[in-house]
Design brief:
This protein is of the alpha/beta class. It has a domain at about 5-105 and about 185-260: Rossmann fold (3-Layer(aba) Sandwich), CATH 3.40.50.300. It is about 35% helix and about 25% strand. The protein has ten helices and twelve strands. The strands form three sheets. The chain has a six-stranded mixed sheet with strand order 8-9-10-5-11-12, with helices on both faces. It has a four-stranded antiparallel sheet with strand order 4-3-6-7, covered by helices on one side. The protein has a two-stranded antiparallel sheet with strand order 1-2. A hairpin with a 5-residue loop joins strand 1 (about 5) and strand 2 (about 10). Helix 4 (about 125-135) packs parallel to helix 7.
């Protein structure tokens, strides 16, 4: 697939566009991801209506709104799990609309969904090694393990512990470590704190802070509004499937109470 960027440079594939960067002719002002006028739904039921926002390189963007407003559908559209019926997605200015999820993942957008996604009967190290060997081969797996333990020291302390006996927050940490072996351009964190005790939610957000510090952009879909705002640089407020406000976090705070029930 060949798509012309705004600067006139032609990129032969989304994977090439994801690595080309500004030095290859993509303008420095081009956002990492542009979501433009997206409509989407499930069968005859529409969930999103003309949704638009951008995500900048290295920034965290929060998708906020009441239950059932379309937050998770937005995340699934971004990662290719739901195909939009209108609009387009641009990664580094390259149109990736309608590509299968595996190609979007290869281009650098990784979905970390709710749930723990670990092999409970295997140790932490066995969980990591399975992923790393499959992705990198046996030769590179030990180096990847070392990087994972440097990024998430708690996992190094628990390396011989069965994953099923970890706390909820530690299991989410293990899930993230498995996708961070090759740091994505954009991590879509979809309700990672769902169903967790408050102290474990703290662990999840500390982990996301660590991920952000590596330079990975994050799209946070989250019901813990104040925690998401504390992590994010920008926020998108959705109500009934449409964007009602978007921009820097400090500008969005004033609108949150109007849309989302208090106490979240």
């Amino acid at each position: 697939m060949a798509t012309a960027t705004g600067s006139g440079t032609t990129v032969s594939s989304p994977e090439a566009g994801a690595t080309a960067g500004a030095g290859a002719g993509v303008r420095a002002t081009t956002p990492l991801l542009a979501v433009e006028h997206i409509d989407a739904g499930y069968g005859p039921f529409r969930s999103l209506f003309d949704v638009s926002f951008t995500i900048e390189e290295g920034a965290a963007t929060a998708i906020l709104g009441p239950n059932g407003c379309g937050k998770t559908t937005t995340a699934r559209v971004v990662t290719g799990l739901v195909k939009p019926t209108a609009g387009r997605l641009l990664l580094d200015g390259v149109d990736i609309t309608g590509l299968p999820a595996w190609r979007i993942a290869r281009a650098g957008i990784i979905h970390a969904p709710e749930g723990r996604s670990v092999f409970a009967s295997l140790t932490v190290e066995e969980n990591l090694a399975l992923t790393f060997v499959a992705q990198l081969g046996k030769k590179e797996s030990p180096r990847a393990l070392q990087r994972a333990y440097e990024l998430f020291p708690r996992l190094g302390e628990r390396r011989k512990q069965q994953a099923g006996t970890l706390s909820g927050g530690e299991q989410r940490m293990l899930s993230l470590a498995r996708v961070m072996v090759n740091p994505p351009r954009l991590l879509v964190a979809d309700e990672l704190s769902l169903g967790l005790a408050p102290i474990i939610v703290d662990e999840v957000f500390q982990t996301l802070e660590t991920v952000k510090s590596t330079g990975t952009s994050i799209l946070i879909v989250e019901q813990h509004v104040q925690r998401a705002l504390a992590l994010a640089d920008h926020a998108v407020l959705i109500s009934k499937g449409s964007v009602v406000a978007s921009g820097p976090v400090e500008e969005i705070r004033a609108h949150v109470d109007e849309i989302i029930p208090s106490g979240l």
